[in-house]
Every structure is written in C-alpha cells, then in structure tokens.
User: Fold this.
Amino acid sequence: MKKCLEYFSATLLCLSFSGHAGVIAEEKNPWDQAYNSATKERFIPVELFTGAQWDGKHELTLKQASTTACASANGRPCDKYIITGPFKTESNDTQIKWAGNQIPYYRRTFDNPYTGPVESFFTINASRDGLVRIYDKRKRWGERTYTGQGIKFPLGNWKQGEVRTYLSPRPIRLEILELDGPDHCLTFRWTIGEGKTRNSDNIYTFCPNLGFTTYKSHNRSQRSAIN
Assistant:
C-alpha cells in the first residue's frame, strides 16, 4: 500500500511539473508580448517581414535570414518570395545616414507569372521606422535605385489606425489597418502618390514565422504583378 501511495504521489508530481512547463512555454511566445496594452502600441520587428524566428527583443536589426514566404495576390494561388541576407552594398548612395558607408540589406526574389523574375533589396529606411526598397530589377522597368526616404513595411512602435506619410521623391502613405490580428498577423495599406495609378494602392498582410501572406490591390487587374 505504501509503495502504491509513493507511486501515485510521484505521478502527480510529474504531471504538475509537466503542466507548469507547458504554461512557461506558452508565456515565452515573443509575439504575445509584442503588444503593449498600456500604450496601445505594438513593436513590429524585422522578423515579421522575413518570416524568421523572433527572440522577442525590441531591436531593429537585420539578422541572418533564409526564408520562403507564400503570398496570395488578389485571390490567385500563392507566389513564393525568397528572402536571403543580410548582404552589404559596396557604397551608400542613399539618404540612409545611419548605415554609414555600406548598407546592410535583404535580397528578395520571386517569379511573377506574367512578367518574369523580380529582384529587390530591402533595408531599414532613413527614418528608422520601416523597411524600404533601395534597389529593384525586373523586365518591365529594368534596374532602379531608391533614396531610402520612403517606406514599404512598418517597423518599431505603431498604433492601431496610425497613418504616417513620407516625403520621398513620390509621397508615400502607410496606414495600419489591423495592428494585431488573428495569430498576431499585421495588415496595412500602402499608398504612393494619390494611389490612382497601377500598383500604387495596396493592402498587405504579414504573419509571424510566415512573413508575407496576402496582397490586395485597389487599382489593378488580377492579372497584374505584385510589387
């Protein structure tokens, strides 16, 4: 009888530790801690863009990444977006002063089903509150470079419904539509100029550990390419 009671007590103890470990594991999910209910702000890390694992630190750094995202554009089957890096430019010909003489960047590639391969370089923008494209190459436009003054993806602390504008060569507006949605996904609207031209008024969704997941445009046909 004594042995049975000892075995029963040991079993309960093991179950207790097991349950406690499960609670700790859940509490350590960094994405649960990104939103601050007191300030109603969310910290958006670079890893939400790349789809890489995030350590929970509120730091904006370009850490090693090699990921593939599957993003559905305007209801089409998903396109694969490959992100690698960071790499460094040979020189800094932009307005991004924080980077010094060389700019660290991620290389993103995907195959557009209608216009062919696309290659872009992304880095933290001049105002350090988002990622911006500094280089782009595709068949339709050829090679293009950018100043780094705009934004393509929000970083750092943002609030629900917040709107920020950027006086790049073409004014850019970014609005947070859903700051902390299901599974901690982020949805925002990106508009360039008046948003009336093709590919200039878009809605993007990014999710933890997945990266880019969905895209919708307000001013283009479904056969158009995502930018």
